[in-house]
């Protein structure tokens, strides 16, 4: 039996509850597609990625990008740190056609190996979503409940640590 990588990586649990995926998510940094649990260097993440969502025709989607390990995995006191929030993304359209509510902030982990998660929700209606007043201590569950976004339709994550850090996993 194959284990769900979102459960193994604790994305399900730390950020969202279990859900059945009903869409496809492609995230590309400089034309390199991330795979769930892949490791990327901060220098590869400076520019916002290209994101495409394939799901229910004619739908609009909301994407949340968070770091549940901020400022460090051993003390995630700023969990979840909001790196990006985009709404009204058209199905099969590039994320640039959506409404950027919170501008992309590139990952720059200071200590430990951080998980950076992309969580996508299908919007039931087009609505105004406001930027939170801060990035630290964002709560995806509270956010989705407040805006009636229901369960996620797809999620992915990658790992990242400070370049040149000692110990931990090595980049290939």
From TrEMBL:
<dbReference type="InterPro" id="IPR008914">
    <property type="entry name" value="PEBP"/>
</dbReference>
<dbReference type="InterPro" id="IPR035810">
    <property type="entry name" value="PEBP_euk"/>
</dbReference>
<comment type="similarity">
    <text>Belongs to the phosphatidylethanolamine-binding protein family.</text>
</comment>
<protein>
    <submittedName>
        <fullName>Uncharacterized protein</fullName>
    </submittedName>
</protein>
<dbReference type="InterPro" id="IPR036610">
    <property type="entry name" value="PEBP-like_sf"/>
</dbReference>
<dbReference type="Pfam" id="PF01161">
    <property type="entry name" value="PBP"/>
</dbReference>
<dbReference type="InterPro" id="IPR001858">
    <property type="entry name" value="Phosphatidylethanolamine-bd_CS"/>
</dbReference>
């Amino acid at each position: 039996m194959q284990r769900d990588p979102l459960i193994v990586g604790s994305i399900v649990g730390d950020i969202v509850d279990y859900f059945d995926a009903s869409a496809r998510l492609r995230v590309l940094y400089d034309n390199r597609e991330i795979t769930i649990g892949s490791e990327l260097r901060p220098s590869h993440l400076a520019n916002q990625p290209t994101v495409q969502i394939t799901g229910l025709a004619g739908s609009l989607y909301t994407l949340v990008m968070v770091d549940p390990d901020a400022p460090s995995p051993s003390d995630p006191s700023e969990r979840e740190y909001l790196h990006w929030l985009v709404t009204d993304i058209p199905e099969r359209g590039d994320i640039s056609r959506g409404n950027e509510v919170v501008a992309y902030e590139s990952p720059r982990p200071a200590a430990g190996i951080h998980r950076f998660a992309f969580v996508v929700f299908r919007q039931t209606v087009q609505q105004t979503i406001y930027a939170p007043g801060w990035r630290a201590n964002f709560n995806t569950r509270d956010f989705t409940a407040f805006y009636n976004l229901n369960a996620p339709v797809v999620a992915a994550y990658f790992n990242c640590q400070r370049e040149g850090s000692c110990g931990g996993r090595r980049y290939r």
